[in-house]
Write a structure and sequence with these properties.
The chain has 257 residues and is an alpha/beta fold. It has one domain: NAD(P)-binding Rossmann-like Domain (Rossmann fold, 3-Layer(aba) Sandwich). 49% of the residues lie in helices and 14% in strands. Strands 3-2-1-4-5-6-7 form a seven-stranded parallel β-sheet, sandwiched between helices. α2 links the parallel β2 and β3. The longest helix is centred in the middle third of the chain and has 29 residues. The radius of gyration is 18 Å and the shape is globular.
Length: 257
């Protein structure tokens, strides 16, 4: 199978974390970039950092939970870039907290940003990506494999993302679009830096976002539909399938402090 190459790339959540790391790497590879985020100041900082390192760079301030704004933002970027070969969807929000203590509005906002936002982005980007017979990447989480204490909103949303990707993958493939789902473990991003981060997220060693970028781009280039980062996440998936109660035990031990 010929290795896929991508020259026109749109990245959501590009202002920080994994999204910014994707932008840095793809700028070094000479790609034309369209960067999307809701955080205007941080997105401007990303664009300033990349200025002069990439020939074509466009930005849009967009809340991915707002469908009409996503439609306009991605459509305009597709026009200015001359198309989209690769869409990388990283935008997400954590909203940690015990379910019964958490404001219902926080839970609902997590679903809107993480799950509905994913559907909004894929729906808006798919027609342009189909023209180039390119690829869409959706960053899920290990929380999409097994839900964890004090992360009910995020776990529910990311389970939804994984299920959504499984459901639409064949539909998109029929139009020439590869859909790849990424399942990272603990990644050193601002999402893990908050004081209210769920206890279980402090139980392991975070890996640099550059690892996710490297493994994802390698997998997408080879036409893979799922990426586990690090590879040990496959064991978590296997344990969830065979002995899910053992992960419940781990969650109680590490997540209820």
């Amino acid at each position: 199978m010929a290795r896929r190459s991508f020259r026109r790339v749109v990245i959501t959540g590009a202002a920080s974390g994994i999204g910014r790391s994707f932008a840095r790497t793809l700028a070094e590879q000479g790609c034309a970039l369209g960067l999307i985020d809701v955080a205007a100041e941080s997105l401007r900082a990303t664009a300033d950092e990349l200025a002069g390192r990439v020939a074509t760079l466009r930005t849009r301030i967009v809340d991915v939970s707002e469908r009409s704004a996503v439609d306009v933002g991605i459509s305009s970027l597709a026009g200015e870039l001359g198309g989209i070969d690769l869409l990388i969807h990283c935008a997400a929000a954590l909203f940690p907290g015990r379910f019964l203590d958490q404001p219902p509005a926080d839970f609902e906002k997590a679903i809107q940003i993480d799950l509905v936002g994913t559907a909004n982005v894929v729906r808006a980007a798919a027609p342009a990506v189909a023209v180039s017979r390119g690829a869409i990447v959706c960053v899920a989480s290990t929380a999409a494999i097994h839900g964890w204490p004090a992360m009910s909103a995020y776990s529910a949303a990311k389970h939804g993302v994984a299920g959504f990707c499984d459901a639409v993958r064949s539909e998109l493939r029929a139009s020439g679009v590869l859909l790849t789902t990424v399942f990272p473990l603990l990644i050193a991003t601002p999402l893990l830096a908050g004081a209210s981060v769920a206890p279980i997220l402090a139980a392991g060693k975070a890996i640099p976002p550059e690892v996710v970028v490297r493994e994802t781009l390698r997998a997408v280039g080879r036409g893979k539909t799922r990426v586990y980062v690090p590879a040990s996440v496959r064991w978590i998936a296997a344990v969830h399938g065979l002995l899910p109660a053992s992960l419940d035990w781990y969650g109680r031990r590490r997540g209820l402090r």
